[in-house]
Amino acid sequence: MDLNLSLSDIYHPAIVTYYNYSLLLSFCLTTIILIPAIYVVLTQSKKAQMFKYLLLNQLLWSYLFCAIFVLEGNVPLFPIPGIYFSSIMKWFPEKMNIVLPIHLFISVGHTQSYFLACLYKVSYASAFNKLQFWFEDPRKLEAIVGGLLIIFSTIIVGPFLFYNYDVLQLRQVLLDEYPLLHQLIVHEPSVIASPVMTFPRNCTILTVALTAYGLYIPLTFISGFSIYLIFLRQAFLVKDFMNDKTYHNYLVVVHAKSVQICSVSLFLFIPFLIQFIVFSARLRHASLIALLAHFPASYHLFVEIIALFYFVRPYREFFMKTMGKIRMKVTTKSESESQQMPTLKPTLESS
C-alpha cells in the first residue's frame, strides 16, 4: 500500500531517545512514590475498608501496566499499522509471543480495577443500592474481582495460550505491504505489526480475541465514566440520609474517585484516543503525534498518587503530618550535631 511516506515521516530517533529517558524517569518516580502511597491507603482508609481494597487493587494493576509499558517502549509507525520497540523488548522482539498475552492480561486487570472502583461508588447511590450486596463483604468482593478477571481474560487472553501468534510472520507481511519499512528495519530491527491494528491471518479465534480487546478497553471506560456521572448526581441526594460524619467519609471516597477518573482520562484514555484518531485519519505525521501522546501515558499512576495526596483531605493531612515529623527529626539531629562540635578558641601568637 502506497501512502506516499518517507522514512522521516515515521522515524524520529531524537524524540525516541527522549521518550526512553521519560519512560525510565516515570518508572523510577512511580516506584519511589508507590510504597508511601500504599502505606497511606492502608493506614488512613480504616473507615472505608472495601474501598481500601479496591484502591490497592487499582494501584497495583496500574503499576504493572507502567512496568509493561516501560518494558516494551513501543513506538508507533502510524499510519502504517506497525510498531517497533525502543526499550528492553528491542533486543527480544521474538519474545512478543510471550509478552503479548501478559500485556493483554495486565490491560484487562488494569481497566477492570477502575471499573470496579466506579461500581463501588455508585453502589451507595440510591439508583444503584442493590449493588451494595457485592461490596459489603470481602469474600463477595473477591468473587466479583476474580470472577470478572477470569471471564474477560479467558475471552481475550485465553486464545493466545493455545494458538501460536507468529509475530515474525506478521512482520514479513508488513514488510511486503509497506516497502518503506525495509529502510527502517536497518535502524530498528524490532519492527513488527501492531497486534491491535493488524490481526493475524488464517486464525479467526485470535482475530476475535484482539477485536474483543479493542472493544473492551473503550467500552469499559465509557460505561464506567457514564455510571460515575450518574453517581455524582446522586451524591448530592444521599446527604439527607447520612449523618455528618458518615457523609464526610463518603465525600472522601467521592474525591478520591474523581481524582482517579480525571487522571486516567487525561493521561491514558485521551492519549490513546488521539493515537486511534490519527491512525484512522491516515495523517502523514501520525507517527509523531502518536509518539508524543505516549509521553504522558507512563506518568498516569505517578500523577494519580500525587493528586490523591493533594485532593483527598485525610491523605493530605496524614502526608503533611508525616513529612513534618521527618523534617523535625532532621532539624533536631542537625542542631544536636552542631552543638556537639567543639568550639575553637582563638589563640594569640607569641612574638
TrEMBL record:
Q: What sections of the protein cross the membrane?
A: 20-42, 54-78, 98-120, 141-163, 205-231, 252-274, 286-312
InterPro entries linked = 7TM_GPCR_serpentine_rcpt_Sri (IPR019429)
Matching Pfam families, A to Z? 7TM_GPCR_Sri (PF10327)
Q: Which UniProt keywords apply?
A: Membrane, Transmembrane, Transmembrane helix
Q: What is this protein called?
A: Serpentine type 7TM GPCR chemoreceptor sri domain-containing protein
What species is this protein from? Answer: Ditylenchus destructor
